[in-house]
What does this fold into?
Amino acid sequence: MLNTAVQSAVLNHRHAVTAHPSAAFCADNDADQRASRNIADTLKLLDNVLAPQRRVVHAGDLIYRAGERFANLCILNSGFFKIVTLSTDGREQVVSLKFRGDWLGFDGIASGAFSCDAVAMDTGDVWMIRYDKLLAACVACPALLTILHEAMSREIARDRDSLMSVCTLPADARVAEFLRYWADSLSKRGLRSDQITLRMTRAEIGNYLGMTLETVSRALSKLARDKVIAFAEKGRRDIRISNVGALGAFVQRCLAPAPVLQ
Amino acid sequence: MLNTAVQSAVLNHRHAVTAHPSAAFCADNDADQRASRNIADTLKLLDNVLAPQRRVVHAGDLIYRAGERFANLCILNSGFFKIVTLSTDGREQVVSLKFRGDWLGFDGIASGAFSCDAVAMDTGDVWMIRYDKLLAACVACPALLTILHEAMSREIARDRDSLMSVCTLPADARVAEFLRYWADSLSKRGLRSDQITLRMTRAEIGNYLGMTLETVSRALSKLARDKVIAFAEKGRRDIRISNVGALGAFVQRCLAPAPVLQ
DNA sequence: CGGGCGTTTGAATCAAATCAATTGGAGTGG
DNA sequence: CCACTCCAATTGATTTGATTCAAACGCCCG
It folds into this structure.
């Protein structure tokens, strides 16, 4: 019973974020297991009540684009997505990353149009839900309303954490924090978090974190030198994280005042 | 009929953000007038349906603090507020600024506890609404639900804009953008935006924008030197902005590639 | 008037950006 | 299979925008 969520998380994933059968890597603590189960339960409920329209997407596909009329919210059943805002003067900014169980499209509710692009970064499937139908269903089923509000609330809290990272952490720490967040997100979804495959280029990571691609590269090299992470033998997109705690410790070390050597 | 919203916006404001009777400064365009009216209408509806509990606050008062159990949302009827998140390791970050008509507390919905402090920066009054009562009322009154979702949606979109500014703009432009946002916020609430009184220290502004207080000071001096803003004759907290467009132009100038001089 | 706090401004320093060269894989086609 | 291109990533040298450190100023208030 505990493992059903973990199992279902694997569905619809091909070469994407691969789940691992061993409990050693999947939701290794109670909180992660609970989170993973919550996501599975939420998806099941939404499926039952609303029978959302499925859409399979591939890397590079746009789920919606800025300016488009808002009518649907999406729930991510699998895959990995980025939210990109585009300013009028042409600046582009990756503002958010989304995984299984996350929602897309909240930004469109207020203005009636999306204010950003939602882009798939891997094969996945999203469930489209008409917003008006969702509202109607929420009246009949209060649990749905709770789910919806919690999702929006989490997004708000998460965005604030992002801002905090960008404003208060030096570049190296920001990259470490980014990896930690990614590993955490995988754990909470019942996926193995000791090995992650970045499906973003250094340039995309840099954009998200407010630094250049060279700085990202240097930070990753430093993390590897300090043995906080390791690269897969072949290629440098796969990152092994034997100990997530070490990433947190690295962040703290970056913040600590320079040691006085006498 | 067009001016009622503007009038009501003045209520409950003492020395805070002062409204101006002349239409030249208040909601000078249709969009601003509409926004101002929307805020007034929303407040009226909430007042009628929920009869929120009033609370008068003064500069420095905490509306709620991180860790506190979540039970109420707040609507700001007047005053000016900051949202501050505190990381476990002691970093502090101003993540958001709030004005009349904005909501406080969405971050508490998901986890059942607030994840940040909400601090009044001026005299004002907030309306407290029990979240469970609000949900019940939403079922009976769909307009309420729309209002709630739009507020959350706007907050999400706004947070993303903040992140974009911090990540893509140089320090000078960030300060200009900050002032532009502030002036805009005043316009949308039917208040004069040609003269704003910063109720934040340079240190607070710097924290919010991800830079040091010295850099904020230098940026403001540069804006004044370039005649984009002007300081009040006495003191340097009051800022005159004769032309909001000039702030936008300044931002663009910061982004433009260095001019080739031959 | 004097103390305290917020602000400004300058000079020195530093972290990150920029510029530039090289490496390394993935994919293509002969 | 190898040669080739293309693009991502790394690494080094240099520049630059912002921070840090320091000093002075201005305003408010007891």
